[in-house]
Each structure stands twice: as C-alpha cells, then as structure tokens.
Amino acid sequence: xxxxxxxxxxxxKKELMExxxxxxxxxxxxxxxxxxxxxxxALEVAKDAFGxxxxxxxxxxxxxxxxxxxxxxxxxxxxxxxxxxxxxxPIRYSRIEVARAxxxxxxxxxxxxxIGGEYVPMDASPAGEGRKGFYFRVPAGVVVAIxxxxxxxxxxxHKLGPSIAAGNTVILKPASATPLTSAxxxxxxxxxxxxxxxxxxxxxxGERVGMPLVESEIPRVVSFTGSRDVxxxxxxxxxxxxxxxxxxSNSGVILDEGIEPEKVVKRLAVGAFAHAGQIxxxxxxxxxxxxxxxxxLEAFVEEAxxxxxxxxxxxxxxxxxxxxxxxxxxxxxxxxxxxxxxxKEEIPLKVEGNVIGPVxxxxxxxxxxxxxxxxxxxxxxxxxFRKFEEAIKILNNSSYGLNAGIYTPRVDHMLMAxxxxxxxxxxxxxxxxxxxxxxxxxxxxxxxxxxEGIKYAIEELTEIRFVSLMx
Length: 471
Ligand code: NAP
Fold this sequence. Notes:
single chain; 39% helix; seven-stranded mixed β-sheet; 471 residues; 20% strand; alpha/beta; six-stranded mixed β-sheet; Aldehyde Dehydrogenase, Chain A, domain 2; 23 strands; Aldehyde Dehydrogenase, Chain A, domain 1; binds NADP nicotinamide-adenine-dinucleotide phosphate; 2 domains
C-alpha cells in the first residue's frame, strides 16, 4: 500500500515514510510526508470548503455517513487486517474495532439530523418582555483532528463522524505508526459521496505536521486523542480555539468484599492485557478487598499466564506486540524500576521481540511509574484494601481520571463510588475498559477536556447561535 497525501485530491510526495509491522518489523506500506506548503494549502482548502459544506442540508450529510458505515461493513476484513498489520492489534480485536466504527458512523448519521436548539423564555426578565428567544447550533468551522495509533479506525471515526455530521471540514493528521487505515477510510468517504475538499489528510510527524495546524488561526477546534504530554503541549500552543483533548489514564478497578473472584478474573485479564494494554482505559491498578485478595491474585495470575501472546494475525492471540521497540524498552525500564523500589513480580517479565507477556506486580510503591503514570502496556499492579473508603482514596490518588470499574454487591458502596470517584466514567460491576460509542466519554484531571460520544462531541464541535426576536 502506498499513498501520497490528500488535499482535494491525492498528491504524490517525494518524501515517504515507511509503515512497519510492529510484530515482525516488515514494511507494510509507505505514505507521503506533508511539507510546509502542503500544510498552508490544506488550511486554505479546508477554510474555503467550509463555506460550501456548512450549507449542505443535514439529511444529505446523514446519507453520506450512512453510506460510510455500510461500506466499512462491506470492507470489514480488509480494514481489520490493515489495523493489525500496521498497529499490531490482535486480529480478533481489530474486527471488533471495525464493527464499532460501523456503529460510530451510524450514530453520526443519526445525530446529524438531531442538531437542534432550545427556546429561551426571554420574558423571565423585564428587559426581555415582548421578545422571543431561541438558540440553534452552527458548525464551528475547520477542525484539526490528531489521532493516536491504538484505535486507528474507530478513534478517527470519533473525529470524522461528528465533525461531518455537524457540517465542519476536517484536516486529519493520524499517528505516524498507523496512517494506512486513515487512507482507506478517506477512500471510503469519497466513495460514499463526500465532496472532495471536505476532509484533508496529511501524514508526517506530530511536531512537524500536527503542530503548525494546531497553531494556525484558521481552525476553530483542535480535537486531539493521545498522550497527556502531547495534549499539554497542544493546550499551550493552540491559542484562541476550542480544544477537545482525550488523553491517557492509569485506570483502576475496585473489587469489593462479596465479589467472587472466579466470576471476574477472565474479564479483568482481557481488560488489562488485550492489545498489550495499549488502550486508554486498560485496567492498570486493581484494588482488592483483603478478604478475597489471595484468592483473586492466584486466579488472576493463572488466567494471565494462560492468555495467548504473540502473532497478532493469529486468531487466538490476545496479547500482541508493543507498537515499537522504543515503547517496549520503556516498559521494561518501568518494570525494572518498580522491582528495584520493592515491587514483587507475580509473573516474571517475558519479552520476545516486541511482545511482552502479561506482567502482574504486587507491593508496588506509589511513586513507581508503573503505578502513578500511564503504563500503556500489559502490566498490572494489585493492592489490597480494608475499607471501601480507603479503596476509593487509592483510585483517586492519581493525576488521571478517565474510567473506573467498581465491582461491589452493596448498593451503598455503588452510590458512594458514583459520588466520590474522580473520573469521567464510573462503571459499576464491570471493568474500566468498558465503552460503547454513543456514551459520553472523556476524562477529568489530566485525562483531558471535553467529551466524545457523537452527540457530546457535536456539542464541542458546534457554536451556539442565539437569536432574540422582537417583531
Ligand atoms: P501520542 O504520542 O500522544 O500521539 C498522538 C498523536 O499526536 C499522533 O498523531 C502524534 O503524531 C501526534 N503528536 C505527537 N507530538 C505532537 C506534537 N508535538 N504536536 C502535535 N501532534 C503531535 O499518543 P500515541 O502513543 O499515539 O497514543 C497513546 C496515547 O493515547 C495514550 O496516552 C492513550 O491513553 C491515549 N489515548 C487516549 C484515548 C482517549 O479517548 N482518552 C484513546 C486512545 C488513546 P506522531 O504519531 O507522528 O508522533
């Protein structure tokens, strides 16, 4: 597969970037790298196209999105294989990602027709007497979308679906590790009848291609999904524009007294180790009531050892490779650091190529990076607690706050968790990794700003236009 960049048409580039298979290092494809002139032109094209696209009626935008959803469904196996080849995601999970993208675009098609407003009772104030007030939503303008490697289809869908539904134009800069899925998706949009200048696709490094887009005065919104550190850089340099930042986490799960370990270990092992833990809401910290701690730990370690690790194209694989050697080495360093600080390894670190076997740690000090930072790898720390309040404190003692999973049979504890846990989502009686694509999704603290989940993303991608009407 070889692609140039796309600015109102495909354009060949001399400078190419290789896309490598994270499992075996083979070259999967090549993409062109955008230069300064391309970036300037992309911004102008998106601005110009917005003037036309914003006037296209909702039902037509919706029809295009429905078609995108069905073409993805028709081409599901090709898309799943591409995700696995470039992103190293085990094929069984790539298939799930594609099925989710089918839904994300279907939800976007539905929401395109529901972007409404509200009546404002102006006569609540004497100064408003005799007026009718209402607001409706208008598209914000040009959206810059910057996306990560770990869901190269569905997280791009969460940018393009709501943006297109709302009537915005988009410049997409996907992760350099996984650009091919975005190229396929753009082809699908064009086939579905999207005008040729509504989405622009640029490839190249984050600082070189992403940041000039972020800093430009043309876009009205930067919608970013990726790491906290890059999110912070974007927030510093974006200037006066709307920011939607979907960042990382070190998600935690509480297992309360009364939970039967054997009923939850399978699900938690998948939540922790699937796609090598490279999911923003992967289970990273498990806080277990002392009455079930030993039983849980034993069963969890057994389950983790059983998980098939290796070739992501193998139908059985659960734990695939880390995205790069650099990431693999970072994880090894973090695990070694935790061990030096006193952590105990319940499963010894096993590394083959870029594949790291599941790691379970206990007695992990709070200062260890595997605990306090986002490990984004198949590494889990397990700690015991006595009182439920204490477990919530442990979860909240984090600079992040995306999703938390709370397993408890007690209604008072469910309610306490709902009130006290500091995360964007509190998932009762399931793992933190749970997400469906239409729920409001996003973080507090350093996990980000704003919410995705189509309807909620559309709120971030539109402006309120208020009207006061006095005949
Ligand atoms: P990343 O390193 O932050 O990269 C994300 C995107 O930002 C890539 O397209 C990257 O381009 C670009 N980028 C890098 N430096 C940039 C800069 N200075 N200016 C502008 N853009 C820049 O993240 P990743 O490793 O791909 O993904 C993993 C992270 O994403 C984890 O922290 C994970 O938790 C987070 N994530 C969050 C969510 C969520 O919904 N909250 C979902 C999935 C993932 P290059 O690839 O060219 O460097």
